[in-house]
Specification:
- The chain has eight helices and two strands, in the order H-H-H-E-E-H-H-H-H-H.
- It is mainly α and 194 residues long.
- The chain has a two-stranded antiparallel sheet.
- Helix 3 packs across helix 5.
- The radius of gyration is 25 Å and the shape is elongated.
- The protein starts with a helix and ends in a 7-residue tail after the last helix.
- It comes from Streptomyces chromofuscus.
- Keywords: Membrane, Transmembrane, Transmembrane helix.
- This is DUF4383 domain-containing protein.
């Protein structure tokens, strides 16, 4: 009984790499999303550090239309490197990382929106930073959720298969039945020949 429950749990667990080849388009989307956003954040962080703004300077300095200081620049580089790690690993890790970092960006946008024009604005956020945070968060979440959620996922999708194990077992039987019915129809003579 315990082995059956363990087998059932293993079958339900989503194992992206066991179901699809490494070059599957879902894996490519997750990697591309993590790499692209990581590159944007690292470039922003490096440009901010080059400007030699104070580490916790709440006035900040303008870099490519966004306000920054040393702390925000270092934080951007660290998050960008983390996304690059997700790009290298790929699979479920990259997808989940994209979603988690995306949610963190959205929460950061709301938090920093409340801290605008206060003494606690240690990352020197301005309204354009808040909007950028929301946009990056949404983009990362879309990249992370692509092919994972939705009502019209294809039946070869590993996430659909993990959510519908009973239907996965029925599909081969139904396909075999459909093929047999088609074969029977092709063997019957046309009605006008009867």
């Amino acid at each position: 009984m315990a082995t059956h429950a363990a087998h059932e749990e293993e079958r339900r667990r989503i194992q992206f790499d066991k179901h699809l080849p490494v070059d599957h388009r879902l894996n490519q989307v997750y990697r591309f999303g993590a790499g692209l956003m990581g590159l944007v954040l690292i470039a922003f962080g490096i440009l901010g550090l080059i400007g030699k703004v104070g580490f916790f300077d709440t006035r900040g300095d303008q870099i490519v239309g966004l306000n920054t200081n040393g702390a925000l620049s270092v934080l951007s580089i660290c998050v960008g490197l983390l996304l690059f790690v997700g790009m290298v690993i790929g699979g479920n890790f990259a997808s989940t990382l994209n979603m988690v970092v995306g949610i963190a960006f959205i929460l950061s946008g709301f938090l920093n929106l409340g801290l605008l024009d206060t003494d606690y604005n240690f990352l020197a956020f301005r309204i354009q930073n808040v909007l950028f945070s929301f946009i990056v968060g949404l983009i990362l979440m879309v990249f992370g959720m692509y092919g994972r959620v939705g009502s019209a996922l294809p039946h070869d999708n590993p996430y659909w298969r993990a959510r519908h194990p009973d239907l996965v077992e029925q599909e081969p039987r139904e396909q075999g039945r459909s093929a047999a019915m088609a074969r029977d129809r092709s063997l019957q003579p046309p009605e006008d020949a009867r």
